[in-house]
Amino acid sequence: MVAEEIRKLAEETKNSLDKFNNFTINIKDLSSKSYLNVMEGSKIIEKSSKYIETINKSIVSNGEAINSIRF
Question: Residue 2 has what pLDDT?
Answer without folding.
Answer: 87
